[in-house]
Design a protein that fits this description.
This protein is mainly α. 82% of the residues lie in helices and 0% in strands.
Length: 199
């Protein structure tokens, strides 16, 4: 069973918590490709054609990306890295916190622009595409830094006991933040949207 299959099956397998975060990044990267295609369509037509799909993506970005994935990092991984000497102030951990907040702000702006469009402000489509482009660029760069710098640091410097502690805390966040079955539902949503936007 590979990492993504572990995520899909309610994470019943004992996965290295860093590998779990990497697998979640793969899901996020797929949704960014979908969002990019939607943004390109809006830029061409000036119309937001399927607000239901956007609402599903916003739910994913708020619930899966921020409340679940980012909570794992902010509440547990980043403090663990600080314990072994990775600095927050002026260091990589501080940058990650800042970029998480920037992502939250951009999701709020995307949602606001979509709502303005639905309320009759057709010019809001332009704002939506700009916020979409900014969000994709931010997360692509952010994920690349975590995958290539921060996560290898964690694997190299955190003892096995700490990694096991992180795994248990990640499980607790899964239960408390998103609840049973949500991971599977999100992946079904992603698979459906891939068929619509990424063929």
């Amino acid at each position: 069973m590979n990492n993504l299959e572990c995520i899909r099956t309610e994470r019943r397998c004992s996965m290295n918590p860093i590998d779990e975060l990497l697998a979640e990044h793969e899901a996020v990267k797929t949704t960014l490709k979908i969002l990019k295609r939607i943004g390109q369509d809006v830029a061409k037509t000036g119309k937001i054609e399927n607000p239901k799909h956007l609402d599903q993506l916003f739910d994913f970005f708020i619930t899966f990306v921020d409340q679940c994935h980012h909570s794992k990092e902010e509440a547990h991984l980043f403090p663990a890295l600080e314990e072994v000497g990775v600095s927050r102030e002026g260091g990589p951990v501080g940058v990650m916190f800042k970029e998480h907040q920037q992502g939250r702000d951009l999701v709020s702006k995307m949602k606001a622009a979509a709502r303005q469009y639905e309320s009759g402000d057709k010019e809001a489509a332009k704002k939506f595409t700009q916020h979409t482009n900014d969000y994709i660029a931010l997360l692509d760069f952010h994920i690349d830094k975590e995958n290539k710098v921060l996560f290898p640091m964690a694997n190299n410097h955190l003892p096995d006991s700490k990694l096991e502690e992180l795994r248990k805390e990640f499980d607790r966040i899964e239960t408390d933040k998103i609840g049973p079955g949500r991971h599977e539902a999100f992946h079904k949503m992603i698979d459906t949207m891939k068929g619509v936007y990424l063929q």
